[in-house]
Amino acid sequence: MKLHDLREFIKLVNQSSIEELEWEDGKTSIVIKKGAPVTVISAELPVQASEVGSGYQEAAATTESTEVKQEQTVPVQETQLVVSPGVGIFHTDVTIGQSIKTGERVGSCTVDALQLTSDIFAPIDGEIAEILVMDGQFVDYGKALLAVKPLL
After folding, report:
1. 90: closest CA among 143, 147, 149, 148?
2. Which residues are registered as beta bridge partners of 78?
3. For position 62, what pLDDT does the model report?
4. Is 37 left (phi over 0), alpha (psi -120 to 50) or beta?
5. Terminus of the chain with fewer CB atoms < 10 Å: N or C?
6. Could you write out the DSSP letters of every residue in 72-100?
7. Distance of alpha carbon 149 from alpha carbon 77, whole angstroms
8. Is the whole-model pTM more than 0.90?
9. What integer pLDDT is reported at residue 6 of this predicted model?
């Protein structure tokens, strides 16, 4: 059997609803089976600001990267992040320094093609310390949008 013939058998199985192909010719025997589809599940949980800071330090210690890290204007330990509930275009309803209460709407995430808007609410009482994403920018699920400094 030639390699070309083997490739043709593989194409036949891949492009059809055949789950298994068994072929014998004299001393040569070939069995080609489709594998079960692989399902990859990835869950990225939102992280607290303190975890983000330690993650950067650990990454810097384990890699030999020469990248320059930007310093944040607000100490990471004193803020809590507001993260995106889904994908879409982020629109903010707050400004830096504005006081917010738990459950207050601080922005929205819009998927224009589906005409679907998800409101984003403040997780704690506090003050907007930093806006991490520009208004009108595309965001993914779990992306940090705002840094909120808790009220003491």
Report:
1. 143
2. none
3. 47
4. beta
5. C
6. PSS-GGG-EEEE-SSSEEEEE---TT-EE
7. 9
8. no
9. 75
CA distance 85 to 139: 10
Instruction: Tell me what pLDDT residue 23 has.
Output: 77
Q: pLDDT tens for residues 54-70?
A: 554 555 554 444 444 44
Q: Do 88 and 138 contact (CB within 8 A), yes or no?
A: yes
- CA distances to 105, 147, 151, 152 from 123, rounded to whole Å, are 10, 11, 12, 15
For residue 119, the cross-strand partners are 108
Q: Which residue has the tokens 């403040």?
A: 122
Residue with tokens 């679907």, as numbered in its chain: 116
Number of Cβ within 10 Å of residue 88's Cβ equals 21
In sequence order, the β-bridge partners of residue 6 are none
Cα 31 versus chain centre, distance: 40
Please report which helix (H) or strand (E) contains residue 17, including its range.
Answer: none
